[in-house]
User: Fold these one by one.
Assistant:
Number 1:
Amino acid sequence: MEELLQEIDEPVASAHGVRLLLWRDDLAHPDLPGNKARKLKYNLAAAQQQGHHTLLTFGGAYSNHIAAVATAGRLFGFQTIGLIRGDDPAQGAALAELNPTLAQAAADGMALHYLDRSSYRRRSEPDFIDEQLARFGPVYVLPEGGTNALALRGCAELVAEIQARTDFDALAVAAGTGGTLAGLLTGLAGRQQAVGVAALKSGGFLRAEIDALTQQAMGQIYTNYALHTDYHFGGYAKNSAELLGFIEQFRARHGVLLDPIYTGKLLFGVLDLIRQGHFRRGSTVVAIHTGGLQAWAGWHARFGTSG
């Protein structure tokens, strides 16, 4: 396995006396890397213990989570069902054409079914879940994004893995549903700091979500984290020339490909926070590359931009 901890030599970090490292969770597994695999780890174990043979989950047409669940099904012998937000492409709806993410999910054996937006909004309602169980039979249900208490347990293991290699003052991660950040907080147990960079324009709701997740998993709310919502570049999966330029420059300098949905925003945000003096001089900050590089295929299909 390649070295998972990489020094990131950036002038702004040197100028402010901050040691910046990158944890390469994108290299952790050839087929199922990153935080999505960590979120699935204990859920898959629970599904097996409960005697389930089928996983059912939800996601958008370009979802990293959908891709990860489909891959996990192929690797660990589960049948998988994806309930996708959008119109059935068989009905000729351009928005939901079988893009590279869904094509790969189908190739991995996932059965794809489509929900209109009003139905999709019900995805967490118990009555709706009961309807799906009646429709598909016994299945292990994974929430959108894979975030639940078992997911936090898997993400928490990152803390010990990083601590085994280096001391640090802060961990930084991109935030979508907030599950990975919440998992890191449970692993830190109130010690070092955590920093979340929201990938969504409406990222302000995330703090309540994160606090609810740690309360559920650990019975407490942690205060040793900051959530930054100013680096969304227009919103989730929006095309931004500035962000794409940063990603290209980062790859040229460090040989690391970031994705345009999460990790590009994370590193842009972390470097800007260093510039603003958010981290004290002499501190060590570890940014976490959570994978998600499958998103590039869908990005090219949508925007035709380089990456």
Number 2:
Amino acid sequence: MSDVGEEVRGISPEGAGRSRHSQARLVFVRGGGTTVLSRQVVPYPFHITRPFRMYPDHPDIATLYLQSASGGLYRADRLGLDITARPGSRAHVTTQSATVVHDTGAFAARQDTRLAIAGDAGLALHPDPMILFPGAALDLDTRIVVGPDARAIVSEGFASHDPTGMGRPFARIGLSLRIETEEGRILVNERSTLDGASLAGPASPLGTYAAYGSMAILGGVEGHPDIAALQGAADAVGCLCGASPLPNAAGLAVRVLAPSGGALSTAMDAVFAVAFEALFGVAPARRRK
């Protein structure tokens, strides 16, 4: 996973002015009957809490809040997050709130996420949605390496918001996901780019919906949540959800459409709860925000 730092440090757009190039690294291991954080490199603007033990009957699950010490993502920011889950560990990583992406001008912000989940490990990465301000351009690149019998839930989402109330769109968002085995076999490789003006127009590919979320649920078929239950969780809060198998029996792909960022957050939490209980054997504890 060492290539992430080189990618983050190696991008320096000419004329971008001051920007942040920063990478956080977290390593979870199994020890003493629970999951512990054996290594942490958390430079500004990243900040983390101590791991919480929120499941008395499942002490092997650790919950960690990933926080930001700044006001969001800005012009030409390059942030990286590298999480490793060693064999037998069980970790749930979440955020304290949505992340705002400000007007980036000609230089998009970028966030690279690299996850390595060993055999018999479980990782749930469930951040709050991104909030894209007018003029914001953002690239989200996620790469996941899974070992045998690894289980994971990885989600992301975004919504557009104009603080002035004028309905000005964000610039664009690029989404990239690659999932591969420890031997390097690519299971899933997908990319998409969405233009803010197109999403705000009458021919928006999202239709009447204003926010979008996705979730990859990875692991053996026996641990997959029921697709009807996933869809029902989103329907119950007024959102639209679709789920289908990923290529190469990698898991399930879930897509959620919502009328607003707040509704998206609620729906993604509801869908996540169904997936988490299926993969981890317990309903997720209420997260205090």
Number 3:
Amino acid sequence: MMELKSGHRVVEIEEEKNEEQKRLFKAYTKGVVKLQPGNWFYTRPFLDFADKIYDFKFRPTDIVIMTFPKAGTTWMQEIVWSLKHPFESDNQLDGFPCVALSSKYNLLEGDFVKSTGSGLSAIQADDGYQLLQKHCPGKDPKNGVFLQIAEKISDPRIIKTHLPFSLLAPSLLNTCKVVFVARNPKDVCVSFYHHSNIVKTHGYTGDFNKFFELFLNGEVMYGPFWKYLEEAWERREHPNLHCVHFEDLKSNPMKEISKLNDFLDTGLNADQIERISDETSFEAMKKKEPKKCNTGTCPLMDRSKGSFFRSGTVDSWKKNFTKEQNDKMNEWIQKHSSNGNNFRLRFSN
């Protein structure tokens, strides 16, 4: 049985479930695995990069944005970038989301995400491959496009990840600051469903009912949801960890951005924070979405199925859930959030 440097064991998934994943997610042609302990759910290409990610050297000046997928990652990375570069806001969303790496921010595990089904072809098809040649001439993309560019980015690096603490370097929190964003799993589930339809590195072909069941069972990429939050909850008192609720950020962005300003020691005044609040609103960010993502030319998005910036609201789940699904998820939330070992999230019934 294969064991990773993180101490996790690779567990093969029964053939029937593996084949189901391949049918439902067009990009998962290499299959899926689970990692124990934790029951973490990943596509097989993660194994090619897991140890390299675990060995990644963080710097004291780094800021790591950690979220479960679709919990406010893009929003938070733009806020953090703007706090660190308050006079460069006109350059926001430079190439994002078509190029999800630059001097602005980097998806730490992006190499395995883009290799889910087609190896390096997905990386070579977009600007990320060209960026590697520009910033790291002569480097072999098989060793990681995202990882090697991240190593070259100048300080302060803003790095995002959907990986849990247990799959990252144990020294992470003692080395740099981490901003963790939690969101109502009902909205996460709906947003992740739409995201998996649009983004070609998932290529989801099933309906929402099936995705809902997979989400609750922890059988979507990066699952299980509650275990992911639990690892952050265990570390909530660490001075280098700042936890944000998506719903709080939505209801009072000035207050939450001010807290981030204090946490990151960026020293901005109220007027600057208000400007950042305005410029990182959903409406403002949607307007800046690169044109090629809206014309069908983006190699990583099926634009015919929708926009990367879809809703950005609280309680959008109400348009998707049946009463039975809502009752089932309420029971699931109660089970995992009322035992004192996890976040009590802000959500409506």
Number 4:
Amino acid sequence: MRAKCITILTFVLSFQLDVQAQFTVNDNGFFLAPETTLTVSGLSITPSGPFSFSNNEISYATKPVSGNPNESIKRVYAMGNPIAFKGNILISYYENELNMNSENLLQLTKAGLNGEFLVPTNKSVVNSQENFVSEDVDWTNIQYLTLTNSGNILPVTLIDFEALVRENEIVLAWSTSHESNSDFFEVQHSANGKEWQTIGRVAAVQQSNEVNGYAYVHKSPSAGSNFYRLRIVDQDGTFAFSRIRNATWKSQLSVVFFPNPVSDWLSIELEGSSSVRSIAIVNAKGQSVYHKSNSAIGHNSENRIDFKNFPSGIYTIIVMLKDGSLSTGKISKK
């Protein structure tokens, strides 16, 4: 017996040509008791424990997900926001939605926000008499759900993606379980997690049913936090982003500012100053009020800056290294 109680809810709202059903829940939420089934236009979810579905929606489209050698069936469900779910998921289908997929080989497959589909693992149960496929799952990050044959390969699936600190560099390592028409991985870096720049590109194997490992070495990380993501590009130009990874790199340069607050002379002690390109001071308005290049900086010594004529306020000390990374600190003038 699959459920103690079955609740069937179907809301039809056509707002796009390929959207055929929608179930919307506001902030108040929609609670499902364990072993209670919610069915929305052919998609049934039966949680094994208490499940709350709030500020979200379920819709489905008839446009299949591209794949190799076959696409998915012509029934793809989308969540308004990704969910985590443990229990049974069942998808009913019509035979005219099979899209050249064999009924006996149908498997449940899901993707997260980045559109990377989990390759089917032959764990689904197919009922070709009643036209449905079901599977007991324990999944996180569910944004899309559909059915495809167990031998099909949907877009690149990342198994893992790591950012590891190694001496003066950060090593990025990732692997894929399957690839179909993949072209390359674009490695992107950010110092704040918002503004991104491309720092490298790694060619993909294009077609594979095996696990493939990749790596990229960032030789000039920023002092402090470094954020990384992959832009996964297919041969047809479509792309998806990986999850963001963060690694903290501590510069070998030691910088000490004193006294703080300062009234007349500010001392800056640098250890490893041969790697310093420049020292700059910026006021609260973002205006540069002091700058000294490497040629004028004493190696492994103390540099003194006259602050007597500086107005009272907060200042930022910026030490730029030759590799382009920065070390900063704030001081106040009495």
